[in-house]
Amino acid sequence: MYLTTVKRNVSGIGEEVKNFFSKGVQRSVEAKKNIVGSFLIKVANMAISLLLVPITINYVNPTQYGVWLTLTSMVAWVALFDVGLTQGLRNKFAEARALKDANLARIYVSTTFFYVALIFVVLGILMIGASYFVDWRALINAPIGSENELQYLVIIVISYFCLQFIFQIIKVVITSDQKPALASFIELFGQALVLIIVWLLTHFTQGSLIYLGLAIGLTPVIILIVAHIYFFNKKYYNFRPSLSFVKKEFASELMTMGGKFFVLQLASMIQYSTTLFLIAHYFDPDSVTAYNIAFKYFISLQIIFMIFLTPLWSSTTDAYFLNDYGWIIRVVEKYMLLLIPFVLAAMMMLYFANDVYRLWLGESYFEIDEKITILCCIYIVVSMFSSVFVNVVNGMGTLKIQFVSSIVTSVFFIVMSYAFINYFNMGVWSIILASILSNVYGFLISPIQVYKVLIEKTSNKIWY
Questions:
Q1: Is 24 left (phi over 0), alpha (psi -120 to 50) or beta?
Q2: pTM tops 0.70
Q3: Which of 13, 152, 223, 395 has CB atoms 3.0–4.6 Å from 190's, for a disulfide?
Q4: How many C-beta atoms lie closer than 10 Å to residue 453's C-beta?
């Protein structure tokens, strides 16, 4: 009797799990499956990322690691030159799929791939040529005698960033097809290989920024190229890039949507890249490493939150296009409830931060300013709250206010950071404070915008 009861209970649980993943509208079913899949993949990816920090610092040293972080953040500006094409593709591909128009979807993919490849091949050649005229050591406060190593490293970083932006289009296609877990798996595979290669480097070579750059930069690019070839010849064969499907007029359509995303990318990149550059320039590369450790510690919480959030953008595009506003509102309410345990977790992480740093870094541990830790915690909590509403706005494509706000807040961030450092003599932590204050669109304006568009259904065009 007992065994029969247990079997019945297990069977009942199994049926409930099955119903959870199969009941509801299609986009909700897909979202549930992708959330669980993304959760498992992102947890693994996060573990790899955290393991990579002490291994990398042990392979080089905190100063060289800071140099690496600063250079990659500076060269990341190259991402801006896709002028929002890939983000435009994300929305337009989802719309074409909702209309079941495979031919239109293929035109969007082909046009995006052609123009992104053209832009980044030309840009890569120009940037590598220009890099020889820059004194990289003086620019980022690198140690004396590192000039040649830095020059080679810059070439590696530029090359992998350009190649990455060309071949990551397959991930955009997969994500906009409401399969973000699959896109995340490609990233996981690349990061796992990076971890293995860097671990091997620590055992068989002397610390070298060149070897580190090749391992961390080019390995994921190779995986992307393989994924590009595989998926466009299998699952997404009907959407594979082709010159005959490249349409100039569709490029302007993608950039009409994508051009707005371009400015949003610009604003985001200004904060990310300028943060590390300002720390390196006004303080030192060691401070970049300290900031990065605290940031990576708390960003791990946001990564988990983003696992649940990943399907929201493309699902919102689908729902908004079909005028299913009620579904979007219900989902936003659920995300607000989900945020509560994440805020509590952030408070716990803050309390145990120093103990975790010691355990995590081991022999590489060094003291990190408490203000940096506290402000990184606040920054992540604010970012998680903001990301729910910003993803809904992006999915709806109602970008006018976000477009204007991003320009204003980018200038605001630079001015505040400069003033905090030069006029108030504040430390590294002041740059994080400037980042929090400049995110006013995310934590204040975007929630109002979502209310105005979806609940009030305002006719005021400023909100659209």
A1: left
A2: no
A3: 223
A4: 20
